Amino acid sequence: MSSHNNSSPAVNDPRQPSTANPYVAPMVRPEDLPVDYSGFIAVIFAIVGLMFRYKLCSWLAIIFCAQSLSNMRNFENDLKQISMAMMFAIMGLMTNYLGLGPTRPSTQG
Amino acid sequence: MARSASSLRHCLVLLALLALLFIHVSHAVDHHFEGFDSDDVAEDEEPVAGTLDHPPPIQLTLTHSDPTHSDLPPPDREQEEVSEPSQPSDLPPKPSSNGLDYWDEDEFEGLPEEQSPEPPKLTENVIPKDPSSDPNKAAKPQKTAVSRSYVVEIVCISFLIMFTINYFTGKRENENIALAWAAKFATKDSIFDKNFSLLGVGDGDDTPLLLKEGQNVFKFYASGRRYCSGLLATMELQSRHDLISRLCNLVVRGRDEISFEVYMNEEAMDQVVFALARRKAAKGMQKEERDLQRYASLLSGPTGGRKWVVEELAVISESKEVAGDLITEAVLEQVFGEKAFEKFGKGFISMHFSDQQLGTHKKMLLFKFALPDAKNMAHMTRLVALIPYYIDLIGRYKLSSQARSKTDSARSKAAQEAYKEQQNARQEALQKRKAERKKMMEEAEAKLSAEIIRKKEAKDRARQAKKAMPRVRMTRAH
Lengths: 109, 478
Prior knowledge:
A: disordered C terminus, transmembrane (chain B)
């Protein structure tokens, strides 16, 4: 639909194609981004589960990692923290279930 | 709604299946223990237990005496054979069987009863030699707890499965709401199409209307209208894709919101600071927003006998006159009046016009509405119609001389204050620089003086060395 500048009897067409600017996404500095609480909690639980060998903590860390992944907006920025939390959580699960580590002699002869 | 119901059913079915599996497994494990208790020859059942159970400590320890188990290496078998005579690695609940195992009648006459309680204790003490004893200890309390230890895994895995399912269903729900809104208000012959020439985010004709910034944030951009340079609508929906947030929202009611930012042209907007919101929100806004705080105040009631907004709403403005000019008859009739608000105004949250906004754009109109369901998008029509109406109204509005004098004085005061603050800041910066320079100079001087002292000392040493030197020569001559 072309806009006509001549006033039609009813109402002027308010559109002005000449003044249209394309959308410019505003630059958001990494410091201004909303805090990723679930990722933070995931890291905490993962470390606790890994150090103290609580299975529940490692599983909770996985769950919070999943929540953080699903809330991820900016793929590049957020992926680092989430992948770190996931690594800790998976390490925690592995030490809990496979019995790796110096304090578990069951795997040793 | 049907989709969410069916997905809930899927989830319930999955949970039921998992629960059944868990019960079956726990029964199976119990049987193994019972079998082991009653029979000494429970070794045939043990491999089965081993394959079913993942965590090594559990079945290994209980069925430790079975060296055929994959996780226990041969050395266990040797140790078992060695320890058979004195220390069975069996559990204390089976002392009689232990006694039968190792009790050699020839060697242990007369001491059957003393022997049986001892070996279990010995096994508990000899930890480094017998690795199976350590799992023994762990096995004992775990024996009864084994049936419980699966709960954590099953609950967590089922939660993760439900989380994944909910992610996709929630994502689709949010997208449906956003698309329903766009279909109603942003497609051809809709209100925004009639008001703006450029809709959407990209270039060209076939651009996507909505920009998805997250699973619950959608943006819509429009540009090309008189009085304003553009409009940005941001839809912030509930986090339906995130199961944890969804559960929280069951407790704490959240809502879907859409906020519009209209960027007014410099020459189009006069000095107006105005806001309209529900009572409580209005008080909060007046305290939080800097421009409202500085220039405007909560208005008490209508001027004279004219019609005004509903009791639920409060007006924040610099002057009553401006407020009266902005709340026109048409608006009262359509949205904010007594009758209209009941029907059409439920989704209204707030409205804020300002020419002193913080940030890049100074002159902005902000609207915030609650989004209805995907099926009830038409309920918002009148609210959305407010936007082009107010763009035109503000665009054409000129303050009267009285109002302008007030606003001018207020703004000039604010400008002076800002200028003073800037001056102070500059002076402080200058003073800091001077102080830093002084420090630098002093340090340099100190360094220089230190160097001078060093040179002096060096000279002194050299003199002393010279003094010492001739003696040496004299002695040489001799």
